[in-house]
């Protein structure tokens, strides 16, 4: 996944995003609406989008595996057409393995093939998570990527820079992709040189630049 476009599910989810050029769409459940309303919007979008012959991969961001919301999220959003989930607040391989068990149950209930749903871990949202970034190797065949997001870590910019570096290294050690957060076109080229395989974006305008930079040859110049 070179490019991931975030779509908040607290309002209408535009079907035009399917033509944005993004490799994947990420439907976020948080926001002003009740979580049940956001879940319903996300599921309806996935069910409508799966009828398209060519489309981006479809993911929904779910609550931390230890939270009260996780089972409700999974029960509501898992259906044919969903490609996987982004796990909030992931703090290590145990969270990936716990979520994998939950996904296996829902896959069977929904008639989906075993292992059909991938996991992308938002793996640097807390200090505890950062200290687990080297331990994802072999966590689960479902694990597709480790990802940064806009969470603020104690320690400010220096802590975030350290977390980015550790996440890229941890993903490489685990044999999965590392996803960065969009921060301007100049930062995109740097992110690719630093080992990131793709970027999470918040506007369709960013997708063209992401695809251009991550789809071409690597420029190793600083």
List strands and helices in order, with pairings:
Elements: E1 3-8, E2 24-28, H1 35-49, E3 57-62, H2 70-77, E4 84-87, H3 93-110, E5 118-122, H4 127-130, E6 143-147, H5 156-174, E7 177-181, H6 185-193, E8 198-201, H7 204-215
Parallel strand pairs: 1-2, 1-8, 2-3, 3-4, 4-5, 5-6, 6-7, 7-8
Helix pairs in contact: 1-2, 6-7
Summarize the structure.
The protein is built from seven helices and eight strands, in the order ββαβαβαβαβαβαβα. It has helices spanning 35-49, 70-77, 93-110, 127-130, 156-174, 185-193, 204-215, and strands spanning 3-8, 24-28, 57-62, 84-87, 118-122, 143-147, 177-181, 198-201. Helix 6 (185-193) runs parallel beside helix 7.
Order of helices and strands: EEHEHEHEHEHEHEH
Number of helices: 7
Name the structural class: alpha/beta
Quote the average pLDDT.
92
How large, in whole angstroms, is the Cα Rg? 17 Å
Identify low-pLDDT runs: 217-222
Percentage of residues in strands: 15-25%
- What is the end-to-end distance? 24 Å
**Percent range of helical residues:** 25-40%
Strand order of the largest sheet: 1-2-3-4-5-6-7-8
Main β-sheet, in a few words?
8 strands, parallel, barrel
Report the strand count.
8
Q: Specify the overall morphology.
A: globular
Describe the structure.
This protein is an alpha/beta fold. Helix content is 38%, strand content 18%. The chain is built from 7 helices and 8 strands, in the order ββαβαβαβαβαβαβα. It has helices at 35-49, 70-77, 93-110, 127-130, 156-174, 185-193, 204-215, and strands at residues 3-8, 24-28, 57-62, 84-87, 118-122, 143-147, 177-181, 198-201. Strands 1-2-3-4-5-6-7-8 form an 8-stranded parallel beta barrel, surrounded by 6 helices. Mean pLDDT is 92; it is low at 217-222.
